[in-house]
Specification:
alpha+beta; eight-stranded antiparallel beta sheet; 23 strands; binds zinc ion
């Protein structure tokens, strides 16, 4: 409770410090843009003690906001990602207290705008990680139907490398041939979540959250042309094709994700025609995806040592030479190299 008081106190210091600049905020006509949540505060002024009169229960807050309250105190020191879109506290004399506070605390009112598919993503919105969603995907039990309307092909080009398992790592996207400087377009309407630089991976990349609940990632760009938080229509040029990051030859690395989980873009888009496989909806088969992931997790490799033979390795791991050859796409006569990794499961 002491911590909460400190938080509220520091908020109020900020508030008071910014009082002189507050006029433009207070004169905003709220009737034109009614707040989502309005709390009644029994307060005559801006004294700290008065804040304890804030009645959270009476405000009938949505579930996502309820955790921000302890007793009758609003916690503003919580994770920025968990902050609500809008939270407005009106004092009895008509002042709007908290609408002002978060803006001044974080210096960016866009944090309090509505992001695409916000409730689906539990209000998690950050530019720090491509997949900040923890086990949200794992908590799904039923297949998901995603509306596909409004799709625009990000780049017309042939596939140079498909989605799927590459020797020792998962390739979570589809690589499409583009030239440096080619326009890369937003697949659906949405909002820019990340404009990033990852020298050993994506290079320059853009992550979009779409209104249909999908997220797309565009990697190896020569130049991103959008800003974080920017809203983009479908087909908007979000960057230029390139060869940055871990890339040999200019191409677009395109990922499609749902709650952080990568889906195979070739299941969604027919890259030979540039059209959707189903222009109405895409069904994410949760059971099949979880099964595929379990199989990936079960994969096992053996590092070849001096004297190893295929039959010896097969015996050791309780499998057959034939199975090993299938798994590794090699012939039974293949000469093993020391240090080479052989998939055994
Ligand atoms: Zn790639």
């Amino acid at each position: 409770m002491k911590n909460l008081k400190v938080l509220v106190l520091s908020l109020f210091c900020l508030l008071l410090a910014s009082w002189a600049y507050a006029d433009n905020v207070f004169t905003e006509d709220l009737s034109l843009n009614p707040p989502l949540d309005t709390l009644a505060v029994d307060s005559e002024g801006d004294e700290l003690e008065e804040m304890d009169d804030l009645d959270a229960r009476a405000a009938q807050l949505p579930e996502c906001l309820a955790g921000l309250f302890a007793h009758d105190t609003l916690i503003l020191g919580c994770d920025m990602e968990l902050l609500p879109n809008k939270i407005i506290v009106r004092t009895k004399d008509g002042d709007v207290v908290y609408k002002l506070a978060p803006q001044f605390m974080f210096g960016d009112s866009t944090l309090f705008t509505h992001h695409p598919a916000d409730s689906l993503y539990r209000h998690i919105w950050t530019d720090e990680r491509v997949n900040p969603y923890g086990n949200l995907f794992d908590s799904l039990r039923e297949d998901v139907h995603i509306p596909m309307a409004g799709f625009v092909l990000p780049a017309p080009g042939y596939v140079t490398s498909p989605f799927g398992w590459r020797r020792y790592r998962m390739h979570k996207g589809t690589d499409i041939k583009v030239q440096i400087g080619d326009s890369i377009r937003s697949a659906w309407s949405g909002q820019v979540r990340i404009v990033g630089w990852d020298p050993r991976g994506y290079g320059y990349y853009v992550v979009l959250r779409h209104d249909n609940g999908l997220e797309t990632i565009y990697g190896h760009l020569s130049r991103p042309l959008v800003d974080e938080y920017e809203r983009v229509p479908a087909g908007y040029v979000i960057g230029l094709g390139g060869n940055t990051g871990r890339s040999t030859g200019s191409h677009l690395h395109l990922e499609i994700r749902y709650l952080g989980e990568a889906v195979n873009p070739a299941n969604v888009i027919d890259f030979t025609t540039g059209k959707l496989k189903n222009d109405q909806e895409y069904v994410i088969g949760i059971k099949a995806m979880k099964q595929a992931r379990a199989e990936q997790a079960a994969m096992k490799y053996h590092k070849v040592k001096s004297g190893d033979t295929l039959s010896g390795i097969a015996k050791r791991y309780g499998t057959t030479v034939r199975k090993l050859c299938q798994l590794n796409k090699i012939k039974e006569t293949k000469v093993l190299q020391i240090g080479q990794k052989i998939r055994v499961r």
